[in-house]
Amino acid sequence: MIKNIIAIILFFSVSLYCGEIEKYKNVNLKQLFDELNQRIEKVPEVKRLNESDLKNDPRYFLKLKDVDKKARTKLLELGFDIMEIKDGYITGLIPSDLIGNISEKEYSIIEKKSIYQWSSENKDFPAADSAYHNYKETYDVLKDIASNNSNMVSLFSIGKSYEGRDIWCLRINTTEKGTTPSKKPGALLVGNHHSREHLSNEMVLLFAVYLLENKNDTEIKKYIDNLDIYIIPMLNPDGVEYDIATGSYRYWRKNTNKFSGTKVIGTDLNRNYDFRWCKEGASTSQSADTYCGPNVFSEPESQRLRDFMSSNKNIKTALTYHSYASLVLYPWGGLDEQVSDEKDRNAFIKHAGEMAKILGYEAEQSSDLYVATGDMADWAYDKLKVFAWTIELEGNGFYPGSDIISKAFEKNKKAGLYLLSITDNPYK
Question: Is 163 a known active-site residue?
Fold first, then answer.
């Protein structure tokens, strides 16, 4: 009897395991979008953010009267994580131990709520995150398209995250494989610097599927044959998994680095790069969502991207995806002045404008919003002369629901193709 039970358990275990392996066999965009719609239909009810995690979360939601760029930059330094800048007001999150920094003499507070109270009333919360790809599902898609296109695709890890997860990179190159250097001009697309910006992972992951599904299209074949294309959908896998671990979103932005002697965790990866590190627009408080880290490149994830880009000197262009503001941003973000090289500045402005037209977004210099130092795009241009733009995706919140994925991708795939079209010569 016991042997029979064990056999049954083993049978179902193997069946489930095999089903998981087969899930993304010969994956294509139609399959992914069909799966997305099925997941939405299967969600029985909206799961609100009313779990104990958020009851005990020390952050507060603040709505402030809008101020100028200089005052917004100071807010970031005070530990205020700006989420939205609208006509007349700003919203964001701040830890309770830093809320005293927000002087009502300087900033008019319109609304103040605990993150638990605010999130429970949040009308924009989606039915579930299951329509998006978590860490394992992202890897499974990458692995499938790599195995089915082995003549032109390599999949490798650029290194480990803080918790030991691989940071996966898909490379499309018809002549070189793995980490072998290439003389072809390189383009890089990166998603999920920030954990809660799950839409950024989808845009980068789906772009990889799209390119390989259409590899025989005349335009795309030209890019595949002549470029070295690197795709890193999820730079911050620990933070992504932490954000969705309870089944209720945590509004988590940082990684999950645990600092000794404290319960506080996480560094803002996009304040951790070596461009005017931890100056304007970054916080030195560990509890702040905009914490710059104990030192420049202190985090494994930013270190790995630094090392990867530095060792691939053929990379000429890059897109780093964030959400949400419907913007195409260009350097400088951490300096309140223009790029000094006129030729480079004109290239940044021209191509940002062209991508913005494609997307229906606005193009502007990153520091026009506020000054924020330690930014990846700034560092890439300053240290490596990579033309790097930031795309702030569309949406009405960090969790805009599942319907937005296909709509946003239809536009963003065209912007991605535009980047590829200028990679061989960003000055053209």
Answer: no
